[in-house]
């Protein structure tokens, strides 16, 4: 089949209609997991089938789509999903957070603050926050009904008893508007504060588990904690080695077999924009307009501008600007053009 | 069924319903804001916005209740032809459409079950006009406070007190739509 043989955004209209109703009920009851008839998608479970269905139900031809995987625009999952919607919906795509109207994400919230008019779609593996404490759906459903969340506090308490602190570092449970306990998907707990009072609409899709849930804008979301062990949004105690940012979530990258390592922003767009604006970290090189000099050392084959494989770069992605007057150099297009 | 029932649907359903859904999502996610819906021309007395909502959200799995003046032959035929939705009594409805007076008493509509609060009705309430004035709205989706020309206060306050149960509402007037989910708290301005 060629791309033109698919319905707009791949799914058939009745499926989108069903997903749209589930999204609206999710918006009406923030944090409650709405069951929906998840479809088989042309990708395996665990690759974002829930997020893809939610995105497909929300997309219009006027949208600009950004897809990130752990903050990066250029990893396999993000590139595949972006290409999927380029083919089946013909939408514009971008790597710039501020340019996007819909952002599908796997396990991160962008560092750049989201705005009204944006929708953040999360890929969710296990939507039920109580699932690893209580495997039976009938029981967890009853627990949500009765607001019986003591078990979750016991789990956090056991963390403290064993480790001296709450050791849960991702998929950290939150309470929405004082009612439903919700799994924010496996985002690092560093991102949890960004869930609350966001200007954007946040939608969560779990394909295998057949659940959709949502946070309307300006919804109060609180990370569970104790008075004497308050929630801390932690990150690695370093600055980004490429852009020098002290306030962004970092990935640790092994650079050799002698214990060498570097810390880089997990949000590639945020890091790139900072470097284009002249910020340089411990190992970063200034970004030049020609982009012929790669910043040393390349952190990994699929990460980092210098080591980017031209085949993985996305020819359809529009060159993302980095703030006003800074959109000249430093994006993937230039790499590809120099490579050719 | 008259030939007129066949007219007035979407010319390009995938694109028009996508735009319509985004407007309705914004309306429900940001209570008190007014959004535009266009693309459908339903028979009188249904407004354009209500017609677009029906085409976007209803199908053969969503029983629809038509209240009062909306329960007329041309509209029944139009909804049946374009969506295949069964037309039912108020108690069984997933979507209920009509003027505020005709929908009374609203306690008839499904408010969901404690373990499945999503199994509740959505009311599409036809209004003569919609303005961002009137009762004060607070809650999820609203930065500080919003105002919307609701047709009543008590019924909606009672509904929101049922949270997480309750029905959800769209208000439609001409091409305008506003949303009022059950999570919104309502008080006199």
TrEMBL record, chain A:
It comes from the Bacteria. It holds the Pfam family PhnJ. It is an enzyme of class 4 (lyase). Residues 282-340 are annotated as: Disordered. InterPro entries: PhnJ. It catalyses: alpha-D-ribose 1-methylphosphonate 5-phosphate + AH2 + S-adenosyl-L-methionine = alpha-D-ribose 1,2-cyclic phosphate 5-phosphate + methane + 5'-deoxyadenosine + L-methionine + A + H(+). Keywords: 4Fe-4S, Iron, Iron-sulfur, Lyase, Metal-binding, S-adenosyl-L-methionine. Its EC number is 4.7.1.1. GO terms for molecular function: 4 iron, 4 sulfur cluster binding; alpha-D-ribose 1-methylphosphonate 5-phosphate C-P-lyase activity; metal ion binding. One of its GO terms (biological process) is organic phosphonate catabolic process. Residues 331-340 have a biased composition (Basic and acidic residues). The keyword Repeat does not apply. Belongs to the PhnJ family. Catalyzes the breakage of the C-P bond in alpha-D-ribose 1-methylphosphonate 5-phosphate (PRPn) forming alpha-D-ribose. This is Alpha-D-ribose 1-methylphosphonate 5-phosphate C-P lyase. It comes from Pseudotabrizicola alkalilacus. The lineage of its organism: Bacteria, Pseudomonadati, Pseudomonadota, Alphaproteobacteria, Rhodobacterales.
Automatic annotation (TrEMBL), chain B:
This is Phosphonate C-P lyase system protein PhnH. GO terms for biological process: organic phosphonate metabolic process. It holds the Pfam family PhnH. It comes from Pseudotabrizicola alkalilacus. The keyword Flavoprotein does not apply. One of its GO terms (molecular function) is lyase activity. Signal peptide: none annotated. It comes from the Bacteria. Keywords: Lyase. SUPFAM superfamilies: PhnH-like.
């Amino acid at each position: 089949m060629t791309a033109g043989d698919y319905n707009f955004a791949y799914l058939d209209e009745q499926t989108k209609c069903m997903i749209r109703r589930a999204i609206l009920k999710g918006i009406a009851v923030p944090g409650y997991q709405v069951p929906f008839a998840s479809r088989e998608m042309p990708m395996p479970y665990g690759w974002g089938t829930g997020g893809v269905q939610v995105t497909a139900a929300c997309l219009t031809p006027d949208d600009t789509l950004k897809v990130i995987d752990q903050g990066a625009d250029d990893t396999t999952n993000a590139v595949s999903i972006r290409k999927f919607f380029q083919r089946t919906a013909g939408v514009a795509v971008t790597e710039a957070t501020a340019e996007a109207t819909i952002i599908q994400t796997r396990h991160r919230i962008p560092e750049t603050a989201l705005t009204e008019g944006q929708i953040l779609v999360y890929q969710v593996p296990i939507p039920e926050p109580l699932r690893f404490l209580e495997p039976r759906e009938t029981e967890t459903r009853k627990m949500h009904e009765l607001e019986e969340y003591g078990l979750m506090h016991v789990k956090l308490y056991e963390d403290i008893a064993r480790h001296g602190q709450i050791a849960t570092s991702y998929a950290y449970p939150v309470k929405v508007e004082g009612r439903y306990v919700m799994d924010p998907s496996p985002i690092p707990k560093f991102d949890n504060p960004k869930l609350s009072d966001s200007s954007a609409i946040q939608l969560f899709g779990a394909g295998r588990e057949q659940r959709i849930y949502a946070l309307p804008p300006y919804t109060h979301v609180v990370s569970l904690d104790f008075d004497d062990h308050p929630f801390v949004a932690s990150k690695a105690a370093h600055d980004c080695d490429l852009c020098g940012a002290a306030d962004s979530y970092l990935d640790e990258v092994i650079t050799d077999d002698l214990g060498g390592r570097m810390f880089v922003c997990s949000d590639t767009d945020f890091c790139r924009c900072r470097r284009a604006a002249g910020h340089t970290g411990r190992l970063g090189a200034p970004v030049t307009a020609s982009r012929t000099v790669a910043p040393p050392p390349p952190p990994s084959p699929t990460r980092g501008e210098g080591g980017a494989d031209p085949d993985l770069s996305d020819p359809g992605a529009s060159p993302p600007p980095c703030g006003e007057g800074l959109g000249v150099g430093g994006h993937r297009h230039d790499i590809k053009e120099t490579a050719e | 069924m008259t030939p007129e029932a066949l007219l007035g649907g979407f010319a390009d359903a995938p694109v028009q319903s996508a735009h319509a859904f985004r407007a309705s999502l914004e309306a429900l996610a940001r209570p008190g804001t007014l959004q535009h819906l266009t693309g459908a021309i339903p028979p009188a007395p249904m407004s354009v916005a209500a017609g677009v909502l029906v085409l976007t959200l209803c199908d053969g799995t969503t029983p629809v209740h038509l209240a009062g003046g909306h329960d007329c032959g041309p509209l029944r035929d139009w909804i049946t032809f374009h969506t295949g939705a069964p037309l039912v009594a108020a108690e069984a409805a997933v979507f209920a459409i009509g003027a505020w007076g005709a929908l009374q008493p609203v306690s008839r509509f499904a408010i969901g079950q404690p373990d499945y609060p999503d199994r509740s009705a959505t009311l599409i309430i036809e209004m003569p006009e919609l303005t961002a004035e009137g009762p004060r709205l607070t809650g999820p989706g609203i930065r500080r406070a919003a105002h919307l020309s609701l047709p009543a206060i008590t019924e909606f306050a009672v509904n929101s007190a049922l949270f997480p149960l309750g029905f959800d509402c769209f208000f439609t007037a001409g091409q305008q739509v506003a949303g009022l989910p059950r999570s919104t708290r309502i008080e006199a301005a």
